[in-house]
UniProtKB/TrEMBL annotation, chain A:
Primary localization: endoplasmic reticulum
UniProt keyword annotation of Endoplasmic reticulum present: yes
Broadest EC class assigned to this enzyme: transferase
Name the record gives this protein: Alpha-1,3-glucosyltransferase
Pfam families membership: Alg6_Alg8
Family: Belongs to the ALG6/ALG8 glucosyltransferase family.
Pathway this chain belongs to: Protein modification; protein glycosylation
Source organism phylogeny: Eukaryota, Metazoa, Spiralia, Lophotrochozoa, Mollusca
GO cellular component: endoplasmic reticulum membrane
From TrEMBL, chain B:
GO MF term (any one): dolichyl pyrophosphate Man9GlcNAc2 alpha-1,3-glucosyltransferase activity
Region described as Disordered: 370-399
InterPro entries membership: Glyco_trans_ALG6/ALG8
Domain of life: Eukaryota
Keywords: Endoplasmic reticulum, Glycosyltransferase, Membrane, Transferase, Transmembrane, Transmembrane helix
Protein name, entry field: Alpha-1,3-glucosyltransferase
């Protein structure tokens, strides 16, 4: 027998425990501050408190979650529950917060367990004992010992683990056909962290099409099969979750204040470190145009303000040559990018597979074109994608590119010396395992000049990450570039990664839409 | 500093280990991977992060002996001996094994012996050549290497002398010289049986057992022992892990436990618990953690069904002592109470392990010569494992 999920979970929990003393970002203080706010203030002040700059900007269920944690936190160190302007981190605080992440991750482990036992089909493969062939084992590794989650949650510090656990649970329930439960868990998730709104179109269209209409997954929708009972029960489930979460604040008439906290459009197009998306390339083209313009004398130096350099600030940033981008344009682009897949789900749903593709493409679209995207949002693409890779060889290849690039793009999150060997070793281990396991699982033999499951240009592109990292961690400090042009290595990373991600987005989309037309042609031939 | 250790490990210790596992276990890749992983994850070595270097060299020696490159093996081992004198713990089995092999070599046995002896002497000569010019230098080197003046033991070590000191204060009764003699006599007498057995019947499995025996004897009975020296015994036991998973696992847990006071001093308590649990998980995945099946003519057959419970009890005892030493404040007149308790507790275990390993070495029914590797693979318990009983599982996990 290959090791069961319990063993993997125990091993990965040990690893997380070992990471407790490592570097933590300001997010640690953010969550510490939220503990203090929810513990020491009445509900009506939660969304008004601004002693510290890290104000509460997650939806109410997360605030309640922090409130629950704070009830335990007071036994660790009451000092951490005092609202203050300056960061506070005693040893007990560190242990408490780290442990709370580790414990909340058990939800993810439970969801992965549900997935492995209830959804994954077992094929009578001969070498189930081998850790490179066992479906459950590969899936478990991809989900609960995900490299990205590990460094974002357990080094950088955030609570993504259990949020993805909720997402996974909701997907599992929908896969099982328990659509109402799935919708319930997703509504709960939305009230924990509103970033998941990005994938809600996929949920909405899928549930409307495949649950509210009783017709089977046929190409033609039969309007008569619409079930009001199902529609209303679905609506009730979702609305009641929102009512419980936002109810008190509706009563207190604080909704506009909460919304302004949840959606801070004052922030810029890109985060301090550009997420590897479309706008990273847009920015670089703008920069390049400026430099070329200055060299050739087409642009005047005084026409360009000094503030256009890509400093590390979260404020707005003006483009010089290319037109500046406004929030509504990003929104429009995002919507355009997800429309085809939504239309495909509506017109030709192919069961769970379409649903998962919908989630992935919604996350992808918002990641590539969204306003102020964090690099961590790449996990929202990678984790649902891992559910597809065992089904199709093509998706597995794409996933390998995306996972490697996406995980690599998280590297700048951890910039301290001490964590460098950890992140490199963990990344190598995780990526190598994925390559070995997926290629063996799909029965692909590797050749020495190209990576398994990938074409030669794709392999070359991934291999290119090695010199990029070499430049970032060795060459750039040696040449003193990290002082003179601190943004250069970040820019290089995000542009290089964004190329790979945009490429995989195109390829994935292309295949899905092509499949769609192929199926249609098949049907036409039959008629 | 840390990087030098890491790189030395990466270059010497890890390749030796992986190569050894690779050539000694002829089974599928994933099994090899897991076996190497479980040995690499042995917490004792991971947490005490210096001194892998000599272990790595010694491992290369063992590896060479396994693949019958006797001269290379002896050179590698001599190098490790020159790197750290503590490798003397392993010297006796190396000597006996090579002697036995030469003796059983039908053709030109003398020539082989001379070859090996010459290579050893040459290696020593090269290593010590900078100091061989003057007589005082040599004496000074030896004086530094073997600081007898430091006394019978320093901290609370889990060996016999330290444990006996609770009952009899040997330090006060005897002079330094007579203590030295006492240690020497005890050590030599306890080394003899396993060594002679090895000379008579030099198989590789017996060699590994003899390595464990001799290093344990040194640890328990010799003069001026440090807690970390248990790692020298742990290395051969790590190699025995595929052959005797149950006992080796037990030993490795206890050996890590015996260094607990060191970890407390270095603020590694969290790491101690999590790496132990990690080690348990990986070993549990890889091996079948039930005692080896008793054969018919085995000594004390009734004890075998009880062994899993004894393991749980003993580990529970460890956990209890660990927690107690962290939580309970010892009485002011006995500040080292828990260190001493931990030392005695592990010492009792080590004595039992020594007896057991000796017993196994004598009873392993082995054919002479080359078949040792096949023998060892037969000794390995069935690969398709039955998990250890549920309550057993749970209790260890609390660690």
């Amino acid at each position: 027998m290959a090791p069961s999920i319990t063993y993997v979970a125990a091993a990965i929990t040990c690893l997380k425990l070992l990471l407790i003393p490592s570097y933590r970002s300001t997010d640690f203080e953010v969550h510490r501050n939220w503990l203090a706010i929810t513990h020491s203030l009445p509900i009506k002040k939660w969304y008004y408190e601004d002693t510290s700059i890290w104000t509460l900007d997650y939806p109410p269920l997360f605030a309640w979650f922090e409130f629950g944690l704070s009830q335990i936190a007071q036994f660790f160190d009451p000092q951490m529950l005092v609202i203050r302007k300056d960061p506070y981190a005693s040893l007990a605080t560190i242990y408490f917060q780290r442990l709370s992440v580790i414990f909340s991750d058990f939800l993810l482990i439970y969801a992965a367990h549900e997935l492995c036992t209830k959804v994954l089909r077992h094929h009578g493969r001969t070498n189930e004992a081998n850790i490179f062939y066992n479906r459950n084992f590969i899936m478990t590794i991809m989900l609960i010992s995900n490299f990205g989650l590990l460094i974002v949650d357990h080094i950088h510090f955030q609570y993504n683990g259990f949020l993805f656990g909720l997402l996974l649970l909701s997907v599992v329930r929908i896969c099982q056909g328990k659509n109402l439960q799935g919708a319930f868990w997703f509504a709960v998730l939305l009230n924990f962290k509103h970033i998941f709104l990005y994938i809600s179109p996929a949920y909405f269209v899928y549930l409307l099409r495949c649950y509210c209409f009783k017709s089977t997954f046929d190409t033609k929708i039969s309007w008569r099969s619409f079930s009001f009972r199902r529609f209303i029960s679905l609506g009730l489930v979702v609305l009641s979750v929102f009512a419980i979460s936002f109810g008190p604040f509706i009563y207190l008439k604080q909704i506009p204040q909460i919304l302004s906290r949840l959606f801070p459009f004052k922030r810029g197009l890109c985060h301090a470190y550009w997420a590897p998306n479309f706008w990273a390339i847009y920015n670089v083209i703008d920069k390049a145009a400026v430099i070329i313009g200055l060299r050739t004398g087409l642009l005047d130096a005084h026409m360009i303000g000094g503030s256009t350099m890509t400093g590390g600030l979260v404020q707005e940033f003006r483009h010089t040559v290319l037109p500046s981008v406004k929030p509504h344009i990003t929104l429009l682009l995002t919507i355009i990018s997800i429309l085809p897949i939504l239309m495909k789900i509506w017109s030709n749903p192919q069961g769970i597979q379409s649903f998962l593709q919908g989630i992935i493409l919604c996350a992808f679209g918002s990641f590539l074109f969204g306003w102020h995207v964090h690099e961590k949002a790449v996990l929202m693409i990678l984790i649902p994608f891992s559910l597809l890779v065992l089904e199709s060889k093509r998706d597995a290849g794409l996933f390998l590119i995306m996972s490697t690039v996406g995980n690599y793009s998280l590297f700048p999150l951890l910039f301290t010396q001490k964590e460098t060997p950890i992140k490199i070793c963990a990344m190598l281990l995780y990526t190598l395992y994925l390559f070995m396991a997926l290629s063996r699982f799909h029965g692909v033999r590797s050749k020495f000049y190209q990576l398994p499951l990938l074409s030669i240009p794709e392999s070359l592109y991934l291999m290119g990450l090695v010199p990029v990292e070499f430049f970032n961690s060795l060459l750039s400090p040696m040449l003193g570039l990290d002082v003179r042009l601190p943004f250069l290595s970040l820019m290089l990373t995000s542009v290089y990664c964004s190329l790979g991600l945009i490429y995989s987005w195109f390829k994935f989309y292309y295949h899905i839409l092509l499949d769609n037309s192929a199926v249609k042609k098949d049907k036409q031939k039959k008629h | 500093m840390r990087y030098t250790v890491f790189i030395a490990d990466l270059l010497i210790y890890i390749p030796a280990l992986c190569l050894y596992i690779y050539i000694s276990n002829k089974c599928e890749n994933s099994k090899i991977l897991l076996t190497s992983l479980s040995i690499l994850l042995y917490p004792g070595l991971m947490l005490i992060d210096h001194g892998h270097f000599h272990l790595g060299l010694a491992l290369w020696g063992i590896l060479a002996l396994f693949s019958d490159h006797d001269i290379l093996g002896s050179v590698a081992f001599t190098l490790s001996l020159c790197y750290k004198q503590m490798e003397l713990y392993h010297a006796w089995p190396f000597f006996c094994y090579l002697l036995g092999k030469c003796y059983h070599n039908k053709k030109n046995r003398l020539l082989k012996l001379i070859n090996i002896a010459l290579s050893v002497i040459a290696t020593f000569a090269v290593c010590f050549s900078p100091f061989l010019q003057r007589k005082e230098d040599i004496l000074q080197v030896f004086h530094r290497l073997f600081p007898f003046a430091r006394g019978l033991y320093e901290d609370k070590v889990a060996n016999i002398w330290c444990s006996l000191s609770v009952l009899i204060k040997l330090k006060e009764i005897f002079s330094l010289q007579s203590l030295l003699l006492l240690c020497l006599v005890c050590t030599v007498f306890s080394l003899l049986p396993s060594g002679l057995n090895l000379i008579r019947n030099p198989t590789f499995l017996k060699f590994k057992l003899a390595l464990a025996n001799s290093s344990l004897v040194f640890f328990l009975l010799s003069f001026q022992v440090h807690e970390k020296s248990i790692l020298l015994a742990a290395l051969p036991v790590c190699l025995l892990l595929p052959d005797y998973p149950f006992v080796s696992f037990w030993f490795l847990m206890i050996s890590t436990f015996s260094m607990f006071p060191l970890f407390v001093k270095d603020d590694l308590v969290l790491h101690y618990f999590s790496t132990l649990l990690l080690f348990y998980v990986v070993v549990g995945i890889t091996f079948n953690l039930t005692p080896n099946q008793p054969s018919k003519n085995q000594f004390l057959p009734w004890i075998y069904p009880l062994l899993p419970y004894m393991l749980v009890l003993s580990l529970a005892g460890c956990l209890l002592l660990n927690v107690a030493s962290l939580v309970v404040i010892p009485p002011p007149d006995k500040p080292d109470l828990f260190s001493v308790l931990i030392a005695i507790y592990s010492c009792i275990h080590f004595v039992l392990f020594l007896t057991y390993f000796n017993y196994v070495q004598f009873t392993v029914n082995s054919h002479t010569g080359k078949s040792s590797s096949e023998k060892s693979s037969q000794q390995t318990s069935p690969k398709k494992s039955i998990q250890i009983p549920a309550n057993n599982n749970r209790k260890i996990k609390k660690q």
